[in-house]
Amino acid sequence: MNSITDLIRNEIESLSIDASRSNVGKVTMLADGVARVEGLSKVMYNEMVEFPNDVLGIALNLEEDSVGCVLLGDTSSLKEGDDAKTTGKLLSVPVGMELLGRVVDAVGRPIDGKGPIESKEEYSIERIAPGIIPRKSVDQPLQTGIMAVDSMIPIGRGQRELIIGDRSTGKTTIAIDTIINQAKINKQGEQSGKEDFRPVYCIYVAVGQKNSNIARTIKVLEETGAMEYVTIVSAPAADNPANQYLAPYGGCAMGEWFMENGRDALIVYDDLSKHAVAYRQISLILKRPSGREAYPGDVFYLHSRLLERSARLNEDNGNGSLTALPIIETQMGDVSGYIPTNVISITDGQIFLETDLFNKGIRPAVSVGLSVSRVGSAAQIKAYKKVAGKVKLELAQFRELAAFSQFESDLDAATKARLDRGARIVEMFKQTAFNPIPVEVQTAIMWGMQNDFFDSIEVDQISDAVTSLKEYLSTQGKEVCDEIYQSGKLEESTEQNLRSALEDWKRTFS
Amino acid sequence: MSTSNRVNKIANLLLSHSLGDDGRVDKDKVSNVLEDMRKNPPLQHIEILKRFAFLVKKHMSSYQGILEYNGGNGAEMAERLCSKDFIKSNNTEIHSQESQSLIAGIRLKIGDDVYEDSLANRLNNIRKALL
Predict the structure, then answer these.
(1) ipTM confidence
(2) Which residue in the set B54, B109, B112 is minimally distant from A40, CB to CB?
């Protein structure tokens, strides 16, 4: 009997031990979502650290004797003396098509009550931006559906275009309009059956916003049918600063999946001012040296490493793209602040929104002088480029002349004509929120403006005229719009059809 | 040199004077160091001593292992562990103690490294996977 049990015991002892190895430490300080841990000598930078009660943290400060960890989730159960354990994993988020139509938190956990996300892949939230070799220049348009933007500040797929302005000037509206327009284009493209059609998937990252605002955005996207192409990453103001700091990186990783799999994606960071504030809060608690406006020294790197991850990849690398629309809130229109200048210098242009224009009823309140797209007309379809080429110059001349004309009583005919044209263009660009205009309709309206179809209409009637023309182009004039949509060009025959269509509309409008 | 840097530097120096030929903290040498400090107290005496104590504790924990076990013979397990190469090469001392919290299995802690094969740990992993 003994020999048999010895035999079994020997067999058990010969089996390898399946031991797990970890590196541990003790919490010595806890404050404002940050824990200082003694030990953890083998922890990696940005590694996930496990605390009791399934609380996770990220190792951000690796010092000689201690590690500074930002905590994610509910930290109320933690206390000094608790154990912390390395996990050997860097923080990652789920990625893939399964995330579309979902609302997730900063680390990709669903918060919309629609059940778990059955994602097959995970991406680390901190990734190295694509280098020089896999990139190509931006040459494909990303239509926002906003006439003032698409005509004067065209955005291309893979571009980083900053939306900047004071509070309540319509920054988020521009971003949401763009997302809605992508959904419309996607549906139109899928119905058209074009082989080379590439849908644009969208990620909206809400950082430090009110929960009510995020709920409103979700509602708008659902009502307009855009939600099926959108993932919302939510880190509201009520969330701890660590989540607010991580959310843009998590959202970016989700966008990168589309880019690396040969698809096009758009990501909106709303907004990076609050992101910088959250990072400043974490840095101060971690006792990192502070610099200008108490921001840490690496606040530029905070945004540059995020925005550099947006790119247009070449054919050898799948031809995908990730377009970024970061948002920055200015104070009293001051673009020379620390964070605004940083982000302006990183991005490929900016859409500057002015409070004065907004209050005058010019919405979207795009400032022509301060807004620019460094990609330029390379990101416009040929037809649109043809009609919108001169509009920015005309509008800039109008603003300058309008300022001078206040002091002049007698104006020469040429100046008066420019002022009239400018006033009409300003009216033409007025657009209601969440109502993007398809590019072919924009082209037709712009063509009408360039070919004097609006000259006989009173300035205060232009908005009505544009609305009426849009309706006409979506019904009787649909054929000519389809022609522009299919060819992307304004050939002579198309122009003739357009002329006859607009003459027909003009009669009905008059 | 900042205050904390100075304290750190002196404490490290004291630690190096406290080590024996085998690289371990030598009790006599520590006594000598403390005696010398008592005779010639430096600036920030208490801070230096606190830092010195921290460094000594940290250094000692790198070659002193704690083996927790539940079920089986702890002493035998400690002996078997001591025969392993990674323990031998570091000349680690193993102190064993019984721990009910493991339910069954072992947990070995050397410095801030923990090697664990216990039922409690496996159950915890299952719980996390199911959540």
Answers:
(1) 0.76
(2) B112
